[in-house]
Write a structure and sequence with these properties.
Structural class: mainly beta
Number of helices: 0
Number of strands: 27
Helix content: under 10%
Largest sheet: 7 strands, antiparallel
């Protein structure tokens, strides 16, 4: 007989009008013809080092060594990329149209891939005005936002002239002795800097510091419309970017690296597994 366990049905109001966000997280294991099967889950062989999504709801996983695979919303593999230069991807960004951005901290390089993942074009950060870059990402105008540990600053690099056009000193914003910047993203004219040890710092697109979301152990954040998503320990957090609304959903374990949010699904990311959660929004 099938043995099915399911968890959590949560109603969340994240707008002034009534929105019902029903999150179904059900994980079923059963035997079919003597085989144990898991539903709504993708197991992978290699460790996931970075992950992202595009505007169509497809997700991209980067694996140890630098391979990238694109999956559809059903977690079916669509296309894969195998690099000629082996190295771990520190940050992956697939939300900028038809270009995929990959940052390699060890090489001090970033790569641009086309949407078919057929080839990568690599660029050295040593050819810009930046010092050693610990993390960086594409900006909405296809320049770079970068965090430099040795200078303790957030900078925006204009790639056309290879010069820094915005510099944000961080010594009075972030604890200079106790931080670990793991992720950067620009979204809706805001810049999000994730510190694994203390939370998420938010700046405007000119580099002005706005506020901080206190959280511990967060390595990445995701967005869908006006909602910010992140996983802190065994809690899934959903925050409105423009209203004082913050909801949480209890998860079954605390080993998730993070979450990707699309129109119809949430994808919980583990080091070697992705679990899909389906939800619906009614206005």
């Amino acid at each position: 007989m099938p043995v099915i366990s399911y968890l959590m049905v949560k109603h969340v109001s994240l707008k002034s009008s009534i929105i019902s966000l029903i999150v179904f997280f059900w994980f079923a294991q059963f035997e079919l013809n003597g085989q144990s099967m898991a539903l709504v889950s993708l197991q992978v062989e290699n460790e996931i080092t970075a992950y992202s999504k595009n505007r169509s709801g497809d997700i991209f996983l980067a694996f140890k060594g630098g391979a990238i695979t694109k999956y559809n919303s059903s977690l079916d593999s669509i296309i894969s990329f195998s690099p000629t230069k082996i190295g771990d991807i520190t940050l992956l960004e697939a939300g900028h149209g038809f270009q995929i951005f990959a940052f390699y901290n060890d090489f001090q390089e970033y790569a641009i891939l086309d949407r078919f993942l057929t080839r990568d074009t690599r660029y050295s950060l040593s050819r810009t005005a930046a010092n050693y870059v610990d993390n960086c990402t594409f900006s909405r105008d296809q320049n770079l936002w970068a965090f430099e540990e040795n200078q303790m600053r957030l900078v925006k690099i204009n790639l056309s002239v290879r010069e820094i056009e915005i510099e944000v000193p961080l010594e009075f914003v972030i604890d200079s002795q106790d931080h670990e910047i793991s992720f950067i993203k620009e979204y809706q004219n805001l810049v999000f800097l994730v510190d694994k040890l203390s939370g998420i710092y938010i700046f405007d697109n000119l580099g002005n510091y706005l506020r901080k979301i206190d959280a511990e152990g967060v390595t990445q954040c995701s967005f869908n419309k006006d909602i910010l998503y992140f996983v802190e320990k065994d809690q899934l957090h959903m925050l409105s970017l423009y209203k004082k609304e913050h909801e949480q959903v209890q998860l079954t374990k605390s080993s998730y690296l993070g979450v990707l949010a699309t129109v119809d699904n949430l994808f919980l990311i583990e080091p070697k597994e992705v679990i899909r959660l389906s939800y619906s929004i009614e206005e």
